[in-house]
Amino acid sequence: MKQSLVGLPLTELEKLFTPSFRARQLYQHICRGTRSFAEMTDFSLSLRETMENRYTLYSSEIVQQFKDRDGSVKLQIGLSNEARIESILLADKTGRKTACLSTQVGCPIGCVFCRTGMLGFNRNLASTEIVEQYLHLQTVAGSRIDNVVVMGMGEPLLNIEELRKALVFLTSAEGVNLSKRSVTISTSGAAAGIWDLAEKGPNVRLALSLITADEKLRGRLMPATRANPLSTVKDALRRYQQSQKRRVTLEIVILGGVNNRQKDVDLTADFAQGLKVAVNLIPWNPVFGALFEGAPLRQPSRAETNGFAESLRRKGLNVTVRLKKGCDVGGACGQLGYLPRTEVHET
Ligand code: SAH
Ligand code: SF4
Predict the structure, then answer these.
(1) Do residues 28 and 87 both lie within one domain?
(2) Structure confidence by residue, pLDDT tens digits, 264-276
(3) Of 44, 279, 319, 340, which is most buried, counting CB atoms within 10 Å of its CB?
């Protein structure tokens, strides 16, 4: 199999191509999203042919695209080993574009409200596969994407080494050059990963999928988070805030009647004590077949969502409600899941 080049650090390309300015030219092409060697007309025809014979650019390919009325696009991406992942281009009314990237095929945390969690875990993505998602989305967007949320399939901080390499590519000045402030990682609370991020960076934004600060309920909704008690997660967040000086977002997916009780309000306020946080409420997006201990989950009514937000505000918390994006295409939070090849209808 030919080696693929997209997503490799410049230092790796320099080992493959001499003189080093050639490597740098190639790197710039890749960062700009050039899709074929043929388009690299600043290289001689014979060099382009040699490259074509020895290497490929991308290791993954766009298998299907689903466009939403709101301008969001869900991509199904086929990886070299036949597995599939999904990545989303989120668009808002102001024209702001955000790439939502996956870090794993499936997810080992097993949250009962999340489609990815219902799939189980297959494998970690390589850094190059994470970078490729961004570049595929940029091609589909037709213009630069300035924001990245690592909120697709998988638990990012259980794949932190590869994620870090991908983020270096995306945020370094000689790479894609995104601002670190416009990159957010969302975690279910992998404490060791939060510590690692605090120690070694990169200094990006962090969101914790708190869901509820009722430890017992949390363990039932998000089984593999039991390995990280909330007190440990909070210590890690404090450490993160000492070094990175950034406000952390607490994400709460509202599961109607399950985690929007007064008890959840009180415990969330306790958890937030001593941290600099903003709370982001996400009304649950339906996932086919999602059950909590045998009972179907339901979306909260608008009144429930507003009531929950108000109760949290009365505790002095800064609360926003996340607007739905990508819902028609199954690209909204928690609706991501790859399909085995046989189930996909090629178009
Ligand atoms: N694994 C990481 C990042 C991916 S999930 C994490 O859990 O943080 C991204 C966000 O989508 C999380 O905040 C998660 O709680 C939320 N989510 C999962 N399933 C959802 C659903 N069905 N409806 C709305 N949000 C959901
Ligand atoms: Fe994994 Fe996040 Fe889904 Fe939980 S919500 S199963 S941690 S992707």
Answers:
(1) no
(2) 999 999 999 999 9
(3) 279
pLDDT in tens, 239-287: 999 998 889 999 999 999 999 999 999 999 999 999 999 999 999 999 9
- Helices (H), ranges, 93-126: 115-119
What is the distance in A from the centroid of ligand 1 to the CA of 100?
Answer: 12
Number of domains present in the structure of the chain: 2
For residues 53 and 63, state if they share a domain. no
Measure the CA–CA gap between 207 and 278, rounded to whole angstroms.
Answer: 9
Q: What is the CATH number of the domain that holds 46?
A: 1.10.150
**Token pair of 215, please?**
């430890």
- Residue 52 annotated among the catalytic residues of the structure: no
Distance CA 46, CA 44 (A): 5
Catalytic residue among 14, 31, 86, 129: 86
Helix (H, G, I), strand (E, B) or coil at 196: helix
- Ligand 1 center from residue 332 Cα (angstroms): 9
**CATH code at 322?**
3.20.20.70
**Model confidence, pTM:** 0.94
Annotated active-site residue 333? The verdict is: yes
Query: Which residue segment(s) compose the domain that 22 sits in?
Result: 1-57
